[in-house]
Design brief:
By secondary structure, this protein is mostly helical. The chain contains 14 helices and no strands.
């Protein structure tokens, strides 16, 4: 945990002192340095745990570890794959920005980063709910209870990251113009829409990964994430050749969709969330269509259709009752 915290805090301190001593320094103008810092810390943490595993008696005494705190081979494997999973998460969030910078320059990096940060706020609620309650439930409840929880959190994700994201589509243009004023650029609007679509599937993948990890399958989950990271590099290479911001954004969207489809197939989750697959496809189609279509009548008709569909799909009382049951069990 200490190394994981350090890998996030060290780059922040580096940027702070860099900007303090160099007043003309622009944040993220040297993202390759941040990558080097985090990779170094991750490798160092793995090496230290590896040394502890090899000779726990000497190193355990040096660190004042009791016998109960000494690591077993299984513990080391979990730490190793969790560290790699954290590293891949970091690289997934930084690689596209790094490649945009070296391909198109710092000015385009700003155009790319601002919409991404705005759209990322749509995942806060889902991430918060999952981060707080999933660890509790994974420890004390049965597999069936976790499946119930997963299905209902997926429904909440579909509503907040799907329906609400689409509803704000027509307001993105006037709001961004009002907020940024002279700094506004036309590319912001389609990019925010693309990143909202990305956030929709990123939220779903986060929930699925939490569920898989809780079932002690972190090794396979990490290997899948690493594999798709390298697949994404192929998409980025194509984007670098085309030199268009929208293709970089589309690349990470495609990665999340492919990861979702593969994990659902590989872990046989399609049967678990079979009733949620249809609305996921339904909202995905509208989110994609809304990227290019700006006609207000399209949005009005689409939102009416989505509302009627959502009312037939989402049973609010059932959601509330099931969450009460889950939370009551988690407090037992």
């Amino acid at each position: 945990l200490s190394f994981n915290a350090l890998s996030f805090s060290a780059p922040a301190f580096y940027l702070y002192f860099k900007s303090y001593y160099y007043h003309d320094y622009i944040i993220l103008s040297y993202p390759e340095e941040l990558i080097s810092i985090v990779v170094f810390l991750k490798i160092l943490s793995v090496l230290i745990f590896f040394l502890i595993l090899l000779d726990q008696k000497k190193i355990g005494n040096l660190l004042s570890l009791t016998n109960k705190m000494r690591l077993k081979k299984k513990d080391f494997e979990e730490i190793f794959y969790a560290t790699n999973q954290s590293l891949i998460f970091f690289l997934n969030n930084l690689t596209d920005k790094f490649l945009v910078k070296i391909t198109l320059g710092n000015s385009f990096l700003t155009l790319y980063s601002v919409p991404q940060q705005i759209a990322a706020k749509s995942t806060i609620l889902v991430t918060g709910i999952s981060s707080v309650f999933f660890p509790k439930i994974s420890k004390i409840s049965s597999l069936e209870r976790k499946k119930v929880y997963l299905r209902y959190v997926v429904k909440i994700t579909i509503f907040f990251s799907g329906f609400i994201s689409f509803c704000i589509y027509p307001f993105i243009d006037p709001l961004i113009k009002f907020w940024l004023k002279n700094s506004f650029n036309e590319i912001y609007v389609p990019l925010i829409k693309v990143f909202l679509f990305y956030s929709f599937f990123a939220s779903l993948n986060f929930l699925i990964s939490q569920f898989i990890d809780s079932e002690k399958k972190i090794k396979n989950n990490t290997i899948i994430d690493i594999s798709f990271f390298f697949v994404t590099l192929i998409f980025f290479f194509i984007s670098m050749k085309l030199k268009m911001l929208i293709f970089f954004a589309a690349s990470i969207c495609l990665r999340e969709v492919l990861i979702f489809c593969f994990k659902c197939y590989h872990y046989n989750l399609t049967s678990l969330i079979k009733y949620e697959i249809k609305p996921i496809i339904f909202f995905s189609i509208f989110l994609i269509l809304g990227i290019n279509i700006v006609n207000i009548y399209f949005y009005i008709i689409s939102i009416i259709l989505i509302i009627f569909y959502s009312l037939s799909y989402v049973k609010i009382k059932d959601i509330v009752q099931n969450f009460k049951k889950i939370f009551n069990i988690s407090n037992v």
